[in-house]
Amino acid sequence: MPLLVDYIRAIADPQIRSGGKKSTSSDVPALSVMSEVNGVLKEPSQFDPGRPSTGRVASASMMRSVMNSSESSSPSESNQWSSAIGHASTGKSGRVIERLQADIDRLRREKQLLKLRHEEAEKATENLTTRNSYLQDRNSNYEQSHEANIRQIARKERQVEDLREELRREKLKTSKAENQAEVAATNEEIWRDQASQAKSLASQRESEYDTIVACRKNDYERHQQGLDKIKSNFSVLLRRQDDDLEKQKKLEIIAEQQRQTIAQLEDLTKKLTSNFKAYRAEIDTAIADLRRTASSNDSAITRKLEEMTQVTGQMRWVINVDEIVNYNHRGPPPPTTRPVSQGKDQLDGHAGSESERQGEREKEKDKESGRRSPTKGLLTKHRRKESNKSSKSTK
Description:
Layout: H1 2-12, H2 14-17, E1 35-37, E2 40-42, E3 57-58, H3 60-69, H4 75-85, H5 92-197, H6 202-330, H7 340-369, H8 374-394
Antiparallel strand pairs: 1-2, 2-3
Helix pairs in contact: 3-6, 4-7, 5-6, 6-7, 7-8
């Protein structure tokens, strides 16, 4: 509202309303006075004989439309607006329009920044999806390795059972050999007793006795060698069993570590999945908000463009009428015998030529500045249509 009041006061000022031209207060003193009634600016009444008969009423709603339409104008459109109005940009209304155009540029930059952030969010989502698939593949590899370790442990356990069975058989053989050794020792004692008892018969059985002793000695040595071999084999088996037990313990430790690692990876996968779902929900919400904001901004820009086009035509008509009225006041008074229709035709012809000149000036400015925004082309087309209509009406 303060901006609107300043704009209305600037228009009510005689020097600003004259567009920065030379003072014509001596020619048209009545044009510099405007009255305000119920928030509406009015020109002098047409019933006043000292004031022009072609005065118009400029309502406050039209001023608000001008303020709203300036929000959707670009820097190139501000030049067109200034050229259409005259030197109004030197007053408060020009500063207001420039400030609103700066706000529009800032909003457009923010929109571009939001688009870039949206693209970065999509890239981050794709990276997280790739990392999730990589973790899933890695988890499957760990599961396969764990299954292979379980199969290897089962195979080792079967080997241990076989070794235990072989050890049991060796123990049985050892016990049998010990029994045989005990039996042999017992027999040797018996034979010694018999030999001691049969010393009287030693002369005749000495050779037999020596042979028997040698045989028994050979048997004993053979049995002793067998026992030594069995003992060495048994010690080797014991060492192997100890090594297998150590390996089994190491494998159990490795398996436990693998299980802990798999559990940690599963927890990490669950956390990543939950975080990804929450992040995806936030991203979807932000994207929906951005889309709604962009659609509302586009609709607002389109609406403001239409309002600006309409108000531009109205302001051009008002300026043309003002120039025609000023020209009539500066020129010689019309003859008293001239018909009203001829004066109307002259006004229409002057308006048509003025609109044509203004259209040519706009074309030249369009060629110099180039096509910088989509709204500029629409305004140019609309102005050309207005100039063509005015030229046709004069014909």
